[in-house]
Amino acid sequence: MDHIFFFYFAAVIATTSVLVVALRNPVYSALALLIMFFHVAGLYVTLHAEFLAAVQIVVYAGAILVLYLFVVMLLSIKSEERYHNQLPVAGLLGVMLCTEVILLLIQSRTATSAQAIPADAVTGAGNTEMVGEALYSTYLFPFEVASLILLVAMIGAIILAKKDLNEHVQQ
Amino acid sequence: MTVPLSYYLVLSGFVFLTGVVGVLIRRNIIVILLSVELMLNATNINFVAFSEYFHNVAGQVFVFFALTVAAAEVAVGLAIIIALHRTNSSIYIDDLNLLKR
Amino acid sequence: MLYALIPFLPLFSFLVVGIGEQWIKDRAHLVAVPAMAGSFLLSLMALHDVATGQAINVPLYTWLTSGTLDIHIGISIDRLTAVMLILVTTVSTLVHIYTIGYMHGEPGYARFFAYIALFTFSMLMLVMADNLLQLFVFWEAVGLCSYLLIGHWYDRASACAAATKAFLVNRVGDFGFILGLFLVWYSFGSLDYAAVFAQAGQLASKTTNLLGPFGGTWDVSVMTMICLLLFIGAIGKSAQVPLHVWLPDAMEGPTPISALIHAATMVTAGVFMVARLAPLYNLSPTAMTVVALVGALTMMLGATIALTQTDIKRVVAYSTMSQLGYMVMACGLGAYSAGMYHLLTHGAFKALLFLGCGSVIIALHHEQDMRRMGGLKDKLPVTYWTFLVGSLALAGFPLTAGFFSKDDLLVSSWSAGPLGQVLTMCGLITAGLTAFYSFRLVFVTFWGKSRVDPHHAGHVHEPSTTMTAPLMVLAVLSIVAGYLGIPTFLEPVFHGEGAGAHHEGSAALVIMALATLMGLTGIGTAYYLYVLNPGLPDRLAQQWRAAYELSLHKWYIDEAYDRSFVRPTLSAAQGLWKHVDVAIIDGAVNGVARAIAWGGWLIRLTQSGQTQHYALGMTLGAVVILTVYLLL
Lengths: 171, 101, 632
Fold this sequence. Notes:
The complex is a heterotrimer. In chain A, 76% of the residues lie in helices and 0% in strands. Chain A is mainly alpha-helical. Among the domains of chain A are: 1-81, NADH-ubiquinone/plastoquinone oxidoreductase chain 6, subunit NuoJ (Four Helix Bundle (Hemerythrin (Met), subunit A), Up-down Bundle); 139-171. By secondary structure, chain C is mostly helical. Helix content of chain C is 73%, strand content 4%. Chain C is built from 27 helices and four strands. In chain C, the strands form two sheets. Chain C has a two-stranded antiparallel sheet. Chain C has a two-stranded antiparallel sheet with strand order 3-4. Chain C is globular and about 115 Å long. Chains in contact: A-B, A-C, B-C.
């Protein structure tokens, strides 16, 4: 049963990610990415990370991707008539890297079989509860820093996207 | 019978490399950013898979942070794209070679 | 300590006049002359003290102490130094006075006084030195002053060239001198005269293997090497063959300088040095022989060249060279006191001759060519009579100072063995030549018909008193100096080495008679050729064309040096400039720049400015790293 879910999600993720890169119309790319995000969320559920699955849908699909689509439409971008001219080289490199990663995995698998961590000690508590506890105890400081980063990003985005700050001030 | 860890690794590797190739071959900056999202998601899959296999919640926490950074990146990146489009009226990255001049 | 003022009064004068040059201008002599006169009076006092008592030693200042090396500045006055002091201060004072008239109204008036004061200071320190390093330092200082003064009229190209030549030729000699100093320090461990002389006896037989480093064997006496190396310095400074070429050219300087530096004082420094180091030279017969031969060669060469020169100052200059040859020869034969005696009398009459030339030159508005003079006897009586006295002294006419000193010198030389006797013969011949050319000078310049440029002929008159008074004083000295008993006075310095005034016997009388005869013959020949038969010299010149040309062109030594040293050096420098400096060094610098530019262009090809190219590079790097990881 697990295998079936995994292969379904994996196949859709792989296909949509290829489509994101291959489709020339950015709106189509964004929509392909949306499908991919949903399936990644599904994969998270099979991995018992329900909280992350929810966050994935809410933040990625709901916020980030909408932002992309918003900008694409705002700027009324046409579909790309051609790829970058380093396509053959880049494709070759991608294929090479992919083979190498697989080779690497096969090698490490034969070398050490990192398997069988004993039964989980924290299954009693729910997933959301566990993440929340870790986040607000062990990772409290990084959590605060992350919020700061978001604040800075917000301010930066406002300043960058604003038409011309100086003009407004002078007017 | 659970799915072996290596399957997840192959999947995330594939997605990551698709993102890399996307960054390399697309000219539209927005699509390049989308490719970057692909790469981020690939790593996230990795984190969650390991978190499940080692029964360590730290992996999921890291995904949470990666998500935060992705959000920040998108906000700033899109703002830059808008500013660029305003000055250059182009969002094709090979038109932006000011560094060479 | 009072005697420290002897050199420091001129130094004071130099500082005041030199620093306040712009302000002091035409009043420079008001400082310089009294300072020199004070120095002269102090020298007289010093002479008196030395004559009655012992040598004076005053340490002034310790310059540096490093290990066993102890360098100090001090003054030491013995009889030898005392007479040199008298000579230097006397001539310097008179030249100072003479300069007031000679340089009157010149733009560089104050500068000139500053330089001659500096020169006098240096020369006095040189003769009063109590160690070899001090001697060397002021040896260089007088060379510097000589350079500055020859080039006094620095707007004349010829003066600059002459100054440079003098300096460079002297450098060659100084090189030997420095090596000599090193060897003295190495052998004796000290540079003080007293310490060196005290140890000299023990080192007399020490030898060193010069070819040791190359595996050969060539044992040379250390003492001989020291003496010869130091003598190279003397060759340069005292214008001996083969480094004499600078002296005639030095006549480009103002005439008072020719009198003070290039006749009476500085050029005698070499002779003085040899006499001062007599205890060393006495231990090395080889070096002594070389010194004597160089002196004799210079003596003959100078006299033969002086025969045909037409520039009035050059005749006197070559005569100086010839007379210096006499002195060096005498020192080389061990007759130090005779050499010093001649040095002193020569200082008087040669300064007189040069200052006389200066009077003539001033009177004729800077005309120096003898062929455009003549008949000046009546127009310049004081100059004529004093010049005549000087020429008589130079020719060794009986009862003048030159007569006594030259005879003393020749008699002493005769008694110095076979070599001395041969060289005495040369000296006698040269005495004849000397008499001839000095009276040729007198007759052509002052006698006969006037060949003066008609523009100036009308207002040729005797120069001012400041110029004639020194002439008269020097004329008196040129006679009196022969009666002062200088050789006897100097005798104790050299411990009876060589000879003094007590060479009685028939040989001495014969030589004296012969020398007088040669002198009179020379004068007579000059009278016959230039007064009785004025056309004859030209005919003789035609007849012996080769000899005449040889003499006129100074034995072609300048030309030979030009061919053998100057031009090869210049062309080597040109070659170095064009082929090494421009081609290799500049080429290397430009090449590096070009290589960097080219490399930059090459690397810039990778800098497309396209972000994705860079990203591709990163990916390529990742592939390479992974591949390497996989393959290893």
